[in-house]
Amino acid sequence: MTDIAKFKTPCYVIDEDSLMRNLEILHGVEKRTGCKILLAQKAFSCYHLYPLIGEYISGTACSGLYEAKLGFDEMGKENHVFSAAYREEEFDEIISYCGHIIFNSFAQLDKYRERVLAAGKKIGLRINPECSTQEGHEIYDPCSPKSRLGITDRNFRRDNLHGVTGVHFHTLCEQNSDDLEKTLDAVEEKFGDVLSGMEWINFGGGHHITRPDYDIQRLENCINRMQAKYGLEVYLEPGEAVALNAGYLVTEVLDIIENDMPIAILDTSAACHMPDVLEMPYRPPLKGSGESGELEYTYRLGSQTCLAGDVMGEYSFVTPLNVGDKLVFGDMAIYSMVKNNTFNGMPLPSIVLLKRDGTTELLRKFGYDDFKNRL
Known about the structure:
Helix 6 (177-195) runs parallel beside helix 7. The strands form 2 sheets. Strands 1, 10, 11, 12, 13, 14, 15 and 16 form an 8-stranded mixed beta sheet that branches. Strands 2-3-4-5-6-7-8-9 form an 8-stranded parallel β-barrel, surrounded by 5 helices. The chain is 29% helix and 23% strand. It has 375 residues and is α/β, with parallel strands linked by helices. The protein has helices at 16-33, 50-53, 65-74, 88-97, 106-118, 177-195, 216-230, 240-243, 270-273, 276-279, 336-339, 368-372; strands spanning 11-15, 36-40, 59-62, 78-82, 100-103, 122-126, 164-168, 200-202, 233-236, 247-258, 262-266, 297-302, 311-317, 326-330, 350-354, 360-364. The chain has 2 domains: 4-13 and 247-332 and 340-372, Lyase, Ornithine Decarboxylase, Chain A, domain 1 (Beta Barrel), CATH 2.40.37; 34-243, Alanine racemase (TIM Barrel, Alpha-Beta Barrel).
């Protein structure tokens, strides 16, 4: 990483070299198997980099009108949309941007089917294989009890598939391909008869393909299995895998106070700039630090905001922290930029691209008008 002292904080830094490493891995999966990989924009929507991403993978996946338009305008390749329900006043515009329209219920299919077919676009249905492979994060588990996402086997109307050419499932979150393999077993058990009449299948997202320990060969076996057995074209729509470990959040120490332990106040916020820290919750990685008590000097790191729980966690350091020090939180390209907010009037972090040659480019700077105009 380049010298962080020059960055005006807070700012997100996207590492082009790390991004391209991820893209090369994903492109290799496409090339070896013939599958198509789509960027799930809900995780990473930095459209300045869409032309680069589009050189390696096949397109974008979106969750509604705004993402559909963004993917269409900025990447211009395949564009798939899934929404739990579509708004009538937006639907025709969505059709104009997307080649694959995926429905979450037969009621929505019945309502919009003829308009999609008249536009010459492909129709898919999201299925729920009722196969949970996650532990401890029900908020991210579409197969949890009473889930609103996907049609279960007992509610799947096999007599109402006119115009439907594919199925979609999304059940994983930051998982390896053994969980995909288990999920495919459940998909075949419940919907194997449906697959035989389809043209394509979308494995959804949550595949941590670019993580060092990810079993890519097992993933490719899963893809080849669906292609060989059912003659299906296979899509995947990872978001995290595209920009995993390809970004940082740089922040500055504003003050250090004492209350049972040293507490460093930073010019960033978990609630505003990395919401998953509180929502998941998790402890974000911090460059050059250890666990609480591991190194000589331990601090609790918190925000400027008035939210008492706006804390990133406890970290230890070899040397004491000082006001003015810059700290670097890792893996902040994914979800942070798309979920951030201006609670308490917190400024949004700038977005900087760290290029492969070591130079930097300011992609976006935010100010008072960005705060005011959201209200």
